[in-house]
Write a structure and sequence with these properties.
The structure holds two protein chains of two kinds. By secondary structure, chain A is mostly helical. Chain A has three domains: 2-38, no CATH class; 42-147, no CATH class; 177-397, MetI-like (MetI-like fold, Orthogonal Bundle). Chain A has 20 helices and two strands. Chain A has a two-stranded antiparallel sheet with strand order 1-2. In chain A, strand 1 and strand 2 (167-169) form a beta hairpin. Chain A is elongated, with a radius of gyration of 30 Å. The two termini of chain A are 43 Å apart. Chain B is of the alpha+beta class. The chains are: A mainly alpha, B alpha+beta. Chains A and B meet through helix 16 and helix 17 of A and helix 2 of B.
Chain lengths: 401, 371
């Protein structure tokens, strides 16, 4: 064998940059995301000794005086190391209200509590807040200290761990994620269907128009594609808002009275309209490329064989466009299900989708674990639908052009 | 045939796509029942347009097309019941062969048992039994061709149009299919209107051939008549090989005229009804030209110089200079006793008077000869 290795190995070497690129930009972030959804050692690192002592606690009543002493000491240290807030936030997620308890305890204890310990840590803490006398508080601390947890995933599907350890549905008022997933699914399906209904005739016109028209129409489809997403979405605000162009025209034509202008933006309608518009090219382009490959003679042939235009379309044309329909629909659906910016801008309260909630937990509530769990479920759902599509339609029948 | 109403009739049909140039100008043509008629012409001569107007895919700009004496003007293509075989077959790739053949029967709501029977019969006709579950993409070009023909016949139309159906096949397969199509047509007795630019194909298959040129029909006749008795210089030039010599009529005697070819005077069969002084084109088939070293053997004689001699096998192909042109061809049969000629020889060439036809002059045809 030559020193340079076989050609096969050298050829494989050429793919190293690609593999590295995929690893850095795709696999690593996804891995981090998935890890974060089940692993959070923050509290375990801030209050290690407390958790060690709590491990021996039987979970009923309140723990021993030694535990109170340990938690007080570690809270004081956490305050000095400025990690107290992070621990407080996480404990608060298990049981809301505990944030203030955790934060105020070392402050009230005072700086010199360590040097001059009170006679009973337990009394001192309960004195600061009654919560320290409750079993639930300690359970919450112990729960928050678990580095590996299914909590985020349970939370993401509106389930919770009951005090007795069983898993059950959250109270009705706190179930927000499952309805949101369903809404996202529904909106994505709706947008996909709308894109298909609008995009199919457009693609047909482009594919079978004369070459001059065809180019013009294609450019008309592509120009929005080249325009900033923000500009396009903002344009819809201009058009659809209460004092916007569409409402003005409707009022002018007397279709809608001036004091009952339609609410078409900052709600579900806005999300639907803007998303359909933004995603339409992703439907039109695969359809167009598939339709262009269907000879116009096929329709003539069908007619010569006695098929009416409707029969010819249904039996001859439509089946041949299915690979494009599949490709376009899958593309639009997958883009829609993770759509963020358009609902954020024009969706208002009722037009928010699951991605907006993920962004909220990433940026505002800083509950990255929950955000990661929500995103992971979304990812699984997309993969699941992809597999389903493959089973039903066959992914190899899809054609992007 | 004869006096019966024609199966298909074009009456003063015109077609223009842009409203200015006529792709088909004033077409008149009658096709009899059971006839195999070929529209022959170079590409762009309007023959396919004529076919597509009959099928209903194109509208006529003026005139009428009658099928069985009734105008089909307002009938959509799917109501005309005409079988069409397209240039690239236009088989439906998402259906099996059986599905393709079954399609015209399904849209006619034929019961399934009868459908299966008809499909089998059509497959047997084109010798493709057992292929019904294949997809068109899995078939060779020749097999696809057969499927296309079977599909155009399966619903038993009495009129079938074929638009260059053999254009995509190689030569061997094409010749095989020519006989096959002819056999099927005879077997079923259907009327076929066939479009091709291949004159040999037209000669082999047709009862009659209509020679198209620039949207007009130059001549409609049986292959033999077209070859032996062309009425236009274009036909003489397009069908087979012909020597065309320009000349001026100097005298007429019934069907025979005397023509001055610039030096010598020869006699020819007068097609155009010429008068003295008219310009004509003389057409003489190369195989009717005799080449001899001495004078006095032929009714019409010209002096020529041998430019080139090519040995083909069964004949010698001799290129001669006559007057200013050096593209006069003579085919000398390779038979015992026939004298050899060599380049540089000066010879006499001659022919029988009736083998030479004096045709109306056609500058464009002579132009192409000059190229």
């Amino acid at each position: 064998m030559a020193a340079a290795g076989s050609p096969g190995i050298r050829a494989a070497g050429l793919t190293i940059p690609l593999i590295a690129f995929i690893g850095v930009t795709f696999i690593a972030p996804l891995g981090t995301l998935l890890t974060r959804s089940v692993y959070d050692a923050e509290v375990a690192e801030i209050l290690p000794e407390t958790l060690a002592v709590l491990a021996d606690w039987d979970g009923s009543g309140t723990p021993s005086e030694a535990t109170y002493a340990t938690v007080a000491r570690e809270l004081l240290r956490a305050r000095d190391e400025r990690t107290l807030g992070r621990a407080a936030t996480r404990i608060n997620r298990i049981q809301s209200g505990l944030r203030s308890v955790v934060v105020k305890t070392p402050r009230r204890l005072g700086r010199d509590a360590d040097a001059d310990p009170p006679s009973s840590w337990r009394e001192a803490l309960v004195d600061i807040d009654d919560a320290w006398a409750e079993t639930a508080t300690w359970r919450a601390i112990r729960e928050a200290g678990q580095p590996y947890t299914a909590r985020h995933f349970l939370n993401a599907v509106d389930l919770e761990t009951r005090p007795d350890g069983s898993i059950g549905a959250m109270p009705e008022t706190r179930r927000i994620y499952v309805p949101l997933y369903l809404r996202t699914l529904w909106v994505s399906l709706g947008v996909t269907a709308l894109c298909l209904v609008i995009g199919y005739p457009i693609a047909h016109a482009i594919a079978h128009a004369g070459s001059r028209w065809s180019t013009t129409l294609l450019v008309l489809v592509l120009v929005p594609f080249w325009t900033s997403l923000l500009v396009r979405t903002t344009a819809w605000i201009v058009l659809l808002q209460n004092q916007g162009v569409v409402n003005d025209i409707l009022v002018l034509l007397g279709i809608v009275p001036d004091n009952e202008r339609l609410a078409m933006i900052y709600n579900m309608t806005g999300t639907f309209v803007a998303m359909t518009h933004v995603l339409l090219p992703f439907m039109v382009l695969p359809l167009y490329s598939v339709m262009r490959s269907i000879p116009a003679r096929h329709m003539d042939a069908a007619a010569s064989l006695g098929a009416t235009p409707m029969q010819a379309f249904r039996r001859v044309y439509w089946p041949q466009t299915l690979p494009g329909v599949g490709a376009g629909s899958l593309l639009v659906f997958i883009l829609a299900i993770g759509y963020y910016i358009t609902p954020a801008l024009v969706g208002g309260q009722s037009g928010q989708l699951i991605s907006n909630m993920i962004a909220y937990h990433m940026q505002t509530s800083l509950n990255w674990g929950l955000a990661a769990a929500l995103a992971a479920i979304l990812l699984l759902a997309v993969i699941g639908l992809y597999v389903l599509y493959d089973r039903v339609v066959g992914i190899d029948r899809m054609r992007l052009g | 045939m004869g006096t019966a109403a024609p199966h298909v009739e074009y009456r003063n049909v015109q077609k223009s796509y842009d409203g200015q140039t006529l792709v088909v100008e004033d077409l008149n043509l009658a096709v009899q029942k059971g006839e195999f008629l070929t529209l022959l012409g170079p590409s762009g001569s309007g023959k396919t347009t004529c076919l597509m107007m009959l099928a209903g895919f194109e509208q006529t700009s003026a005139g009428t097309i009658l099928v069985d004496g009734v105008s089909v003007q307002d009938l959509p293509p799917d109501k005309r019941g005409i079988g069409v075989v397209f240039q690239n077959y236009a088989l439906f790739p998402h259906m099996t062969v059986g599905g393709n053949l079954s399609f015209p029967l399904e849209v006619r709501r034929m019961p399934p048992t009868e459908r299966v029977e008809r499909v089998q019969r059509a497959l047997r006709l084109v010798q493709l039994e057992g292929f019904e579950d294949r997809r068109p993409g899995q078939l060779s070009g020749g097999q696809q061709q057969r499927v296309a023909i079977a599909r155009a016949l399966v619903f038993e139309p009495d009129l079938v149009l074929m638009d260059e159906p053999l254009g995509a096949l190689d030569r061997r397969l094409r010749e095989e299919m020519q006989f096959e199509i002819r056999r099927i047509q005879r077997e079923l007795g259907v009327t076929v209107i066939y479009v091709t630019h291949d004159q040999q194909e037209a000669m082999v298959m047709s009862d009659r051939v209509a020679v198209f040129r620039d949207g007009r029909i130059e001549q409609v006749a049986s292959p033999e008549t077209l070859y032996e008795e062309p009425e236009r210089a274009f036909v003489a030039h397009f069908i087979g090989e012909n020597n065309l010599v320009a000349g001026t009529v100097v005298g007429t005697d019934g069907d025979i005229c005397a023509v001055d070819t610039g030096g010598s005077t020869v006699h020819a069969f007068d097609v155009a009804g010429s008068a003295p002084g008219d310009g004509v084109l003389l057409a003489i088939r190369p195989e009717r030209v005799g080449v001899a070293p001495e004078t006095g053997q032929y009714a019409n004689e010209l002096v020529a110089d041998v430019v080139d001699v090519v040995f083909i096998g069964d004949h010698l192909r001799v290129r001669l200079r006559v007057g200013s042109r050096d593209d006069f061809i003579a085919k000398i049969p390779n038979i015992v006793g026939h004298g050899r000629v060599l380049p540089g020889d000066t010879v006499r060439i001659g022919w029988a008077t009736l083998d030479c036809r004096a045709l109306p002059p056609d500058p464009t045809v002579l132009q192409t000869e000059n190229d």
